[in-house]
Input
Amino acid sequence: MVFVIIGHLMGLAFPKSWTRAVGIDDHAYHLIATIPGSIAALAVLLGFAGLLYRRLKNRSVFLSTSASDKVMYILLGAALISGSFATFTLQLFDLAGTGGYDYRETISPWLRQLLIFNIEPELMANAPWQFKVHVIAGFTLIAVWPFTRLVHAFSAPVGYTTRPYVLYRSRDERTTPMRSNTAWEPIRSHREQLEGETPSHGA
Ligand code: HEM
Output
């Protein structure tokens, strides 16, 4: 995903004139975007399949899968599969034999204009359907992003350094009964806890 994100930044945010200015001609850009882009696409698809397999096969992970997780998996899969499909069919295998689709003339300026509230739909009108599907899938995923567990991609674990310990307790009834409100108290060893409680358990 790191390489996919770098690829999206390079292809969508930077105009052609910038890459030309640093000595990358259009053919070189196409090769850089297509070969590592296709390897990155294969890697994300494999990673996605691995995560999906774990979620379905690992019983506790499966049981903790919420409705929002299911929606998220469908939309994430749609974005990854449609993006990879577009790269494979239009760029890597170049089925039309035209040297690949130059999205930096259409999709990229369309997106940059959209982000500054200047809508230019004519730029997208003749884009291949693979890219249209991918952009719809991408934006739908971005729209639901904050309401799914994907939000954690943007949360810094700052509280982790100061939060209280997580206490794991046995459910075995034969062990000491759970005391209330211990979450914010310092950790004591099991023996110390037992010793501390002995008097109150007196006959
Ligand atoms: C909504 C705005 C988006 C636009 C305009 C967009 C555009 C593109 C373009 C033009 C390509 C082809 C790159 C190339 O072949 O050189 C591509 C590929 C791809 N996109 Fe997107 N994309 C968007 C969002 C997303 C999102 C949200 C994801 C996934 C979370 C995603 C995943 C992919 C993948 C996996 C590829 C194939 C690998 C690659 O070529 O980098 N895209 N996208």
In short: The mean pLDDT is 87. Residues 4, 7-8, 11-12, 33-34, 37, 40-41, 44, 79-80, 83-84, 86-87, 91, 103, 107, 111, 131, 134-135, 138-139, 141-142 surround protoporphyrin IX containing FE (CB under 6 Å). Residues 44 and 65 are 21 Å apart (CA to CA). The first helix runs from residue 2 to 13.
